[in-house]
Give the backbone structure.
Amino acid sequence: MSFTRRTTLKAIGGGAAIAAASSIAARTAFAQGSGDILVASIHDLSGGLDIYGKSMQDAMILATEEINAAGGLLGRKIKLVTYDPQSNMQLYTQFAQQAAVKDKVAVVHGGITSASREVIRPVLKRFNTLYFYNTQYEGGVCDRNTFSTGQTPAQNMEKIVPYCMKQWGKRVYIVAADYNYGQITSEWVKKYTQENGGQVVATDFFPLDVTQFGPAIQKIQAAKPDYVMSALVGGAHISFYRQWAAAGMKARIPMASTTFSGGNEHIVLTPQEADGIVVSFSYFPTIDTPDNKAFVERWHKRFGPEYPYISELAVGTYQGMHLWALGVKKAGSLDRMKMIQALESGISFDGPSGKVTIDPVTHHCTLDIHIAEVKNRKMNVLAAFKQQKPADTAAVCNLQKNPNENKQYVIKI
Amino acid sequence: MDFALVVALEVLSAVAGLLLISIGLAVIFGMMRVINLAHGEFLMLGGYATITATKAGINIWLSILVVAPLVVGLIGVIIERCVVRFLYGRMVDTMLATWGLSLLLIGLVTTVFGNTTAGISSPLGSMSIGQYKLSLYTLFIVAVAATVALALYLAFKRTRFGLVARGTMQNADMAAALGVSPPRVYAVTFGIGAALAGLAGGVLAPITGVVPTIGVAYVAKAFITVIGGGASVLAGTLSASTLFGTINQLATFLTTPVIGEVALLAAAIVLVRLLPQGITHRFFRGSL
Amino acid sequence: MSTFWNRAGLAAFGLAALAAVLVLPQLVEAFTLMELTVYVVMSILALSLGFIWGFGGILCFGQAAFFGLGAYTYAVAVMNLGDSTGAVLLAVLIPAVFAAVLGYFMFWGRISDVYLGVITLTVSLILFNLVNSTAGDAYRIGSAPLGGFNGIPSIPTLNVPGQPELVLDPLQMFQLCVVTLALVYYGLRWLLASRFGRVVVAIRENERRVELLGYDARKYKLGAFVVGGAVAGLAGCLFANWGAFVSPTIFGLAQSAQIIIWVIVGGVGTLIGPIVGCFLIQWLTSSLGAFGGLNANLVLGVVLVAFVLLVPRGLVPTGRALLARRRAPTVRVDRLPETKAA
């Protein structure tokens, strides 16, 4: 038989049809598995955001295995249904619909950028599927169907700005990514700076794919601030830290950041480029508590000792899963309303970042906040602030008074 | 006065950067009319080649200037032989193939290297101009860009290979009749274009973030520069990068980076409207 | 003979659309209908590029600009007007007007082939950068905040004209989109068979000859471009309805490249091709995301490269050739076209 194009195409066509059919069959069998509780994980595993998504997915896997090892939930095991939206908003919508309508999962953990969260939040609310958003963001989501376990500006920026001002001085220059998170962060930094008697010398916003920061660096030098606050995000913006160090500015003007290390920047950069940058997050792998040490050991045992970095987003996801599991146990059922009411009754989890408590009024979490300094590709914890409340969202959102709210407020600063 | 000098140097550096990232695409598109949508990924591969070589112990200068272009040039030749060769004359299909290649390369690098790779920092220090500090590496980029432009000019005008390449591009059948093998010329030219992209990626590696998806940030600008430049490979790219780089940097200095980006794009639109076949259709006609 | 096949093809398409609207909902589950809805909407977008490129010879690298404009216009309009009827009309009109302005700018400047591609790409990127910086309450049109990178969520769905409370449910949404696709397809077919369409195709073949015959090629190209922009805007409006959101990434290079890929995979120069290509690539991307395991980019890249080597003319022309029991004609060229004399 000669391999003409026709025969090749027929073979491929036949093969593809069989593959498609079997994948549909497999998926159907999947969804109606023998009494397993289905949990959906919608995180970017490819495309520009995969740095964040991959570790969040691993956190889902670890949490699922731990819960199953401890006997599961309500006598059943948890089964993870994983979706990779490939950094594409349309796929976020499709997979949210699929998880809610087709797989009928008990809960969805997913969304990285605020944009992706705002895409799937209404979908999940419409189809009555519980949603956990585990990434730090700008605050303001007021939705009874959604629980946020990530930190918001009032929690970490309120601490890092006075810390930096005390260390270095009152004049700050802000560089931020040009999208909602960066823009809102810069306003919060301005608020806390002014509250503490300081002054924002200037703010520069950079589109997400800018790699040339020469003019910005020269403008910063001309302005002569006491320190630089960075809210830059993404692979292209790593160039800023590189070029800053290359221009010899590291020794001259200190830098702090609210986003650095979330994308493993301190591992991509060399110690000469990154050492000394001060960051504030809820979680660092170097937090010195027995809970965290045990967690880090379990993580490395599961995913290998060479794992690049256990980020705040990963731990947020891990803690989110455990909080949800505690809610299910308390509710004794997978009924959405019962789960929500259980989660609103003051659930706490002693996680790697400290004690995490869900605030029933805002559906956000009270978290420990830590300030650390980069040193030799590791984070050196300098200060800890226990149990910071989500004050910014609390200022605009009260789900006990208005349980039917469904929007993200832009918090007036 | 100091500030003016600093601004001038930054503008020069931006122009040089734009030239470097575009010249590889200019060779492949200008001489072969192949729209290489995987160009950004060649840049990315150059960066990874440099990092891997430096970590393996090779001197950083060799990694940037020798290893990166060689590795990516070789990959370019392989891609040309395996995929692009079958698609000459079919611009549409080369677009699809190179887009598929770009996805493939991103996926391959993510699978092999993971999405977090420790990079290398600038091997040069900084210098001071008055109260302003400037990275010496900026000057290095300008030097490399100038050398590349000169070397390309000499290669195409003064060497036998350059003559053969230009002849093949003008009339392949005649060149074949004179004893040249056009497929080999195409393979080598594609390889040279890829090597130039690899060199750019290597040069930029110490001052940008090297992640598998970094190529996406470059490809649009490279295309706009190459096509704005017009038919001539060297003169076109040189003039277009000078124009766009200057506008972009000056706008960024004077206003905000967002307006700087928009200014570059708006300048491209105005340019193509005024000079519908690129700069070198009207000015510098007939140059290389 | 070919007229018979043409008529049969048209009838077959109509029957398929009818079956999809009436029969399919009984056979498949709710989620599949929702998934198919977005495939159908994207097919309309693919048709818009397939029309202006395959038949008009206009390779627009920024078709996503009209798509995004339609989506944003619908979102802003429906939030301000309350009733979706006016919003839909605006969502088709505004991209069409934008296409008219851009088209005038380009065609009267005698810009063509790759240079046109660059301009359209640049326009799309400018829109992206501008819309992206609109975060914060200050940026709103009427009562609709533009939202910057986060976009506009919770966009109200289409309602029955005149009755804002009667909103379409997912099933009706699906049926509406299929009917719209069928209408657009037949509309474009009719347009191509008309005098206008014939001149547009003639311009694609040889613009100078058409001009020498006395037609003003610029006007016809502009007309085709505006039709493409309007159809893309309509697709954008439906997309905003399907997902109830719109965000600036809709203007990005990735979205524009996707549309081009669909048309190429399906077959440039056909109308069915873009629809088929869109369905295939969309299905593939969704399956890769749900499957897990391998890196999605890697698999998609391999598939595309293999595709271009094995099925060079696109699916539909190759399919037609196979049906007619001929090998699909490929232009195997060992020599590059001559470059302009330096």
User: Anything to note?
Assistant: The two ends of chain B are 37 Å apart (CA to CA).
